[in-house]
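User: What would this chain look like folded?
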Amino acid sequence: MLRDHVQNDDLIFRHAALGMALISLHGTFIMINPALCDLLGHPQHDIDSTAPLDHTYKDLLADIRRFGESLANERNISGRFERPLDQVSGRRLTVTIHVSLIRDKDALPLHYLVQFENRTPLLEIEEKLKSTEFALTDIHNSYHELLEKMQLAVLITKKGIIQYANPAALRLVHAQDRSEALGLSTNMVVDATYHTALEERRKIYDVKKALNPIVYLINCMDGRQKYVEGFTLIINYEGEHAAVNVFKDITDQKQREEYMMQSEKLTMSGQLAAGIAHEIRNPLTSINGFMKLIRSSKRSPETYYEIIESELKRIELIVNELLVLSKPQGKHVSKPINVLPMLEQVITLMNVQAALKNIEITLERADVPQWIVGETNQLKQVFINLLKNGMDAMDSSGTILVSVDSTEQEVWIRVQDEGSGMTPEQVQKLGQPFFTTKDTGTGLGFMITQNIIHNHGGSIQIESEPGQGTAFTVKLPKTMKPEHT
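Assistant: Here's the prediction, encoded as structure tokens.
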């Protein structure tokens, strides 16, 4: 039955970049994904049953069980701890183990969802960098050789200008030689959608003298774009303070996320299909009626043709907006977007489904364009998800208010429903894999929504009270009006 319980989440489980496992409350494997097989060094096709793994990793399972029991005792939903993990080959890894206690609808514990994050490569590189930091001046040649041979991309920058790039970094950005990269500003390499995050990171360092790991979308020399993840160390380079930035390519991982997003879109398209068909049937009935009037009349008033043309345009608008959801995503090109027409298009589409539940969607905004930089279809998906969540939270009838405001730096889009609302505990768990307040669902919709907003350099704020509805406020970096619009 546990396998039946997770079958709806099988897609994200199998395609997750991190090693994942479902573990019983008694400390035995229920299911493991391919990424965990790779991490442990077990060929997946050789694993007929998880029972042998229970014996091999009994100490690991015991640690997870003890940690999970401590979560339950402290009434926590999730937590993490670090421990060594031995591969089949005997290599010892350092992993961060994320444990989430999964409960049923009655809040009774079911099992643990466990994710294994391999920290070994980054820790090894970080250790090597730290071990050489104090001797960089005296052992410059050795240090240079180390960087040249590293498989991870390394950029050394001073005040945001690239001073050094190792061969792996040149391969990452598809540079023909080092001269193409040296002297470039990091604002040229990092995509514009992440400039706000880049500047915020610099401000945090000025105050706290610490830099957290980061994910960026970068622009390569040949026009392609890639997602990278890495960390930064501040060192003394050629007599001055400089930043050593170590990155790895996570584009494939992001593509898997895009695949999950596309699956979520197709699911939503299916749910909208019935409403779309109902909405299209009404103008078709009008067109059919006026065609009969034209045939029976010796004179065809121009008004008939105007009504028929208006109804056809209405059908075309509905169909075009539906196609946006199911159209495969190609290369994402960020560009200036006026959010007001985009929101009007989304509301036009969602009004079809809202009408079936006697729900009204209203847009409240000033007639002043609000410009951001982003990818139109992805941002439409964000507000479709939020509107759909609002409708799902409302039993029948009511109003969803969409309002637009702005500051000097940000555009704020607020989606306020009149639904059942959520407790603070439910709000805190939103965005976790497999958590949903609906009777059916995977919880992926809001996780995808958060990911899109994060990739656009924005944030999302949630305000909710049981019985009082929920408000989602999306904050996106503001940009200047483009010269040619």
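The longest strand covers residues 225-237. If you want, I can go into more detail on any region.
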